[in-house]
Amino acid sequence: MSEPIRLSKRLIELVGCSRREAELFIEGGWVTVDGQVIDEPQFKVEAQAVVLDPEAKAVAPEPVTLLLHQPADLSLEQALALLIPDHLGDEHRYGKRPLKGHFVRLTCAGELQAHAGGLQVFTQDFRILRKLADDKGKIEHEYLVEIKGEMSPHGLNRLHHGATYKGRELPPVKCSWQNETRLRFAMKNPQPGLLAQLCASVGLTIVSMRRLRIGGVSMGKLPAGQWRYMANNEKF
């Protein structure tokens, strides 16, 4: 019986490509071992059937952006730990195959309000990072806020035109009731703690809050703890 060898070496033997091409083919998800996609060049094979997809391209995989429904009060490390293939949303398991390379070199691109859950963005794409940084003053964030208490008179109007909290003027925001205990807020570049201050300025206390959207990218119906790929036609 032959000694196990690296998958990349076996592929070189089979198709006569270079080592770098073999690694790109494998990391791109173009190689199967006994019918199963293996995307680790160092994976050891023996007598298994190794097949290269006829459509394979020896190019580095495109950077991905992952959209997570992050539960409230998770640390960054805890949120990153949810980004595994098993937590890909059930309705989003078609169209793109998760690869190990999709879960490395991810950067968090959208700070949540303290104690909030909801849409969180992790990306490998420097263009996304630059967009969210350069245009942060233009991009709207939408939150759904569960509240308790009774809103002060003309509270919505005050929020729309700029409320005052402890002598500090707050920025005007879009705000509307979703039901008797939930408010929707839409605002650009929300500073840390802003939602809590806005609610307190009109006599309300926050029970929970969830970010639904950043610019033109929404979380959709992802259950808490699940994620999906950001589609090519979605724009912040």
Which sheet architecture does the biggest sheet show?
9 strands, mixed
Q: Supply the helix-strand structural class.
A: alpha+beta
- Spatial separation of the terminal alpha carbons: 55 Å
How many domains is the backbone divided into? 3
Spell out the helices and strands N to C. Answer: EHHEEEEEHEEHEHEEEEHEEE
CATH topology descriptor of the largest domain: Alpha-Beta Plaits
What is the CATH level 1 assignment of the largest domain?
Alpha Beta
The overall strand count is: 16
Q: Mean pLDDT, as a whole number?
A: 93
What is the general shape? elongated
Beta percentage is: 25-35%
What Rg do the Cα atoms give?
23 Å
Q: Explain this structure to me?
A:
With 236 residues, the protein is an alpha+beta fold. Helix content is 20%, strand content 29%. The chain folds into 3 domains: 5-52, Structural Genomics Hypothetical 15.5 Kd Protein In mrcA-pckA Intergenic Region, Chain A, CATH 3.10.290.10; 65-136 and 216-229, Alpha-Beta Plaits; 140-214, Alpha-L RNA-binding motif (Alpha-Beta Plaits), CATH 3.30.70. Strands 6, 7, 8, 9, 12, 13, 14, 15 and 16 form a 9-stranded mixed beta sheet that branches. A 3-stranded antiparallel beta sheet has the order 3-2-5. α1 (7-15) packs across α2.
